[in-house]
Amino acid sequence: MDAALVVLGTGGALPTARRDNTALAFRIGTGGVLIDCPGGVYTKLLRAGVDPTALDAVVLTHAHPDHVYGLVSLVHSLWMVARGAPRAPLPLYAPAAEAGRVRALLALFDLDRRAAFLDHRALPDDPGRPFWERGGHRLHAHTVDHGPPACAVRWDAPGGLRVTYSTDTRPLDALAAFGASSDLFVHEATYASGEEDLAGAGGHSTAGQAGRIAALAGARRLLLVHLGDHANPGRWIADAQREFAGPVEIPEDGAVYPLG
Ligand SMILES: [Zn+2]
Ligand SMILES: [Zn+2]
Known about the structure:
Layout: E1 3-9, E2 23-28, E3 31-35, H1 41-47, E4 55-59, H2 65-68, H3 71-82, E5 90-95, H4 99-107, H5 111-114, E6 118-123, E7 132-134, E8 137-143, E9 151-157, E10 161-165, H6 173-178, E11 184-188, H7 196-202, H8 207-217, E12 222-225, H9 233-241, E13 248-249, E14 255-258
Parallel strand pairs: 3-4, 4-5, 5-6, 10-11, 11-12, 12-13
Antiparallel strand pairs: 1-2, 1-14, 2-3, 7-8, 8-9, 9-10
One zinc ion (ZN) binds near residues 62, 64, 146 and 168.
């Protein structure tokens, strides 16, 4: 089945004219899994050839506004397009400690009652056990070091293809083991090398630290996302390349990386 990583946004918590908040879609056939839900996701999915009504699951890596604020709009759109007809349950994963916040966000707009198709589930604190599986595609979660409860996500696709997404985190060596030999290692790089103190204080990573984790993981290719609004792509890539010998890229919003 046709599969691809779709990079819906590449900006940090403060978006820019060019980069909206970071979110990904793991496209599998016409559906797939949405990873994080900032604004405009319904439109961005359509533009990327992912049918939002065919989504198999939604994963919220953590409950910071830039990762969840668009959930209300996405769920409202899915409810509208169904026009009151029953639809298949849509699993919605979030760290267990954030379940109440996610439900409260939806309840503000009465969507907890209207969107009865949502199937709230907790991301397991067990990287070895897939939390979602379909047709040989498996997702695993790994707790990261960000501040609030937050999880990295790994997508193992048939044929041994692997995509790992760090979400927001300080550099974490355990993430290299979790994402070992990833074909695509997607790591946040909110800051530049030299800004380690700022990055650490905010629970984030520098581009150099992202490169070090990708190197430790033996990744084939590194994609930098969640760029700070002050990011200079050339400098960020050079910082990462000092640590990681493989290809380093900063995707544009909407970039598609076919698997296989
Ligand atoms: Zn963020
Ligand atoms: Zn965050």
